[in-house]
Amino acid sequence: MFVDPDNVFRQKVEAKIRGEYPNDIVIKLGADPTRPDIHLGHAVVLRKLRAFQDIGCKIVFLIGDYTTQIGDPTGKSKVRPEISQKEIEANMKTYIDQVGKILNMDSSVFSWIRNSDWFLDVVDIFADTNSSVTINNEQHTSHITVPSNSFLGKSVIFENTRMQKTHLGNKHINTVSFTRVLATLRHVTHARLIARDLFQDRLQSGNELYMHEMLYPVLQGIDSSMIASIYGSCDLEIGGTDQTFNMLMGRDVMKINRQPEQAVMAMDILEGLDGKEKMSKSLDNYIGVADDSNDMYGKVMSIPDALIPRYFSLASYTPVDEVEKIKNMLEAGDGNPRDLKMRLAREIVAIYHGEKASQEAEQNFVDTFSKGKIPENVTEISVDENADIIEAIIQSGCASSKTEARRLVDDGAVTFLDNDTKITTHGSVVKKGTYRVGKHRFFKVV
Q1: Do 108 and 237 fall within a single domain?
Q2: Among 44, 60, 125, 145, which is most buried by a count of CB atoms within 10 Å?
């Protein structure tokens, strides 16, 4: 879906291509750092953004570190659990590196900012009660020292840590007060929010709907207004089709603030490995752009056959007419799904790891699954005597948490290959030898 009344955005882009539009065309992409990985579902949008960069548009990658604490209710049948600030900060650090696998990171066509830059208040600043800050008076070449935890001290810290100043070099810092939020809400009716199909589904299923969740689209809309104020414009917001309601709210908020309204582009959503739900970190059905080449290749090979054309279309650079040929072959029963998935896996791995790594991943897959071999580059770990399988799985990197490791054991996905025995008990003591986790992950206890 593309919303661009009067073709305002299209005309700007066409003028940019002709060299007749000197200003930045600013395109917003927002992401809440709920988990550390960016996946191929995100990459559908990122690759479209790269195409916009190639014609001179500027991408503003908005990291919702503040709104993550609320949690976008989109696609959630229940309220999203809270996430700690420590987790948010850790996840956020990985995002910029990962989007750099697709986007051009040159400052002329890329910028990033966090929305705590305007939503966080001076009193929210954490300051050490035992430290102090110095305030310089440039006019009289003098300075005073005040406690960091005082209001004046927090004000200094606040001003000197805003990305608008430290990264963008702006002298004026834009912020959002609670008064401004209330002023915006005066123009947003309860009927407008409650009509959202997600909220209706929640209520009809008997689940609770909380006010902070209803406010999330409004806060996302304020983000667009703030980007327009800071960067000079916010010409387009892009996201998945599940974000359509939130992105259209951005148009409403910008209109309230007498700003030119952003265009909205909603991209198709890529299904996850289960073939049922959208690719999602919380559902653990995703392929991360930071996955190693062997994991990425193996995961692509595990997708349902019915999704092969969708993945060619949304996750690779295969031309549209070629995707249509692949679709017709499968429908006619002429194409071998396994061969097509191997081609797909090669192309996807090559995008993120290069041709050489792609070829090596394919050979590793063939050796492992077609010839029954164990990969040569198996992760080796050393564990304490009497360590259990859960500890070993986590240490090997095959799971990121005890909960995930236990689920793998419960699902019968862990096998001790030395005697071909499935591990079914969480407290099983680890032995020396090789373990397979799922279909394509291995580790060796040495």
Answers
A1: yes
A2: 60
Residue ranges making up the domain that contains 428: 379-445
Name which of 283, 243, 296, 285 is nearest 266 in CA terms: 243
Question: What whole-number distance in Å separates Cα of residue 189 and Cα of residue 46?
Answer: 33
- Sequence-ordered list of residues with C-beta below 8 angstroms from that of 402, at least 6 positions apart, any chain: 390, 394
Same domain for 364 and 385? Answer: no
Instruction: Please count the structural domains in the chain.
Output: 3
Q: Measured between alpha carbons, how far is 67 from 33 in angstroms, rounded to an integer?
A: 9
Sheet holding 414-416: strands in order across? Answer: 379-381, 441-445, 433-437, 414-416, 421-422
Q: How far is CA 86 from CA 34, 62, 65, 89, 156, in A?
A: 11, 19, 11, 5, 23
pLDDT tens readout for residues 394-410: 888 888 778 888 888 98
Pairing of strands 110-114, 58-63: parallel
pLDDT digits (tens, 9 = 90+) for 330-361: 998 888 899 999 999 999 999 999 999 999 99
Give the whole-angstrom CA distance, residue 108 versus residue 105.
8
Angle between helix 402-410 and 389-396 (nearest 10)? 120
